[in-house]
């Protein structure tokens, strides 16, 4: 069947048993192949037509010779199996290039929407290409995050190999998150512009162009009075509207539902600390600490290798210490002790002190524990907290602006201030809605606020740091330290 699909991709309609034998290197002989083809014909996967092109004698005419081709059901079954195998082994990827391609298609559609009479061929090709790139982006992102979660959950691998893979993967995730934040905001703006320019007209043009090739009788509900082109146009128009709504929901958030791009960005960000937790677990395992996961795997292997059921029961009792129930008595010599054969429902209740239940004895034995002097550790933690607070205050002071400032005027930032600034800028871009010129947001702890305004005309900003240069569109930004403002208001009050 794979040979017939391969031939169909080469636009070959019919195959003879000899042709199938040539495609199968070191395969069975022609007689075995002919029997297999006959069985596939019986199952409905193939259709057999008499091969009379090579008949030269009466004996050749009476000898069974057939040309085989895929049936509609056989092709659908084989393609479904192929798709199933590809989906199981699919690794997926976060396609930052697809975001750029989607942006280019949207710009082309926006230009066509401004024309009085758009070219139907260009509109249809751009929309079809947009849907194809978007489908690849969404499917690959879903497959990648699914495989990433499997990697996090099933990390039974060499520690050094996983650490090296972790470094590359985190860098990959950070680059995609950066592209998704910048390009995703541009895509959301283009979607809003297209809707203002009546994108429904472009969708109807694409549906009408597809309906031109509608054949009569293609639908089982067709009647003599029905128009196949009109019916195909209505179906296509609804389909293109659904595609556009799905595409819009992927990049544009509404009041009740965040966009899929925002959810993907949050999921990618959450994967980074999970990867770090896996590395920490591998380091603990390498340091010789007890690993309960490895213990249970070893125990499961012992259960699988047990020779009989009696050995399974002995292993169970040895591993978990479970045996038949016995009645507990605080003092075996006291009067009225309950025999072990007495059912639990018939035995009288027994009062047990909380200390006995917790420690196994009525009172603690031995001298009390020596009180440890932890003053040195407290001083170290206090110095560390003061140092971190000073670094954070210095970063805030470096970012606070007394008046609205262009990003291009910031020029350079130290690493601590740059990390804080990058988080503020990402929160502001994520909170920006399509068509909004100004956005204001604050950090999750309520310590700083940022106000971002779009500038007229194109412009690019560069911020230099010891680790590299951040480039992006220029904005007018105003950053406020809310903690300093609150203290000033409190003193004035």
From TrEMBL:
Residues 360-369 have a biased composition (Basic and acidic residues). Pfam families: DUF2397 (PF09660). Residues 210-230, 333-369 are annotated as: Disordered. NCBIfam families: TIGR02677 family protein (TIGR02677). This is TIGR02677 family protein. It comes from Allosaccharopolyspora coralli.
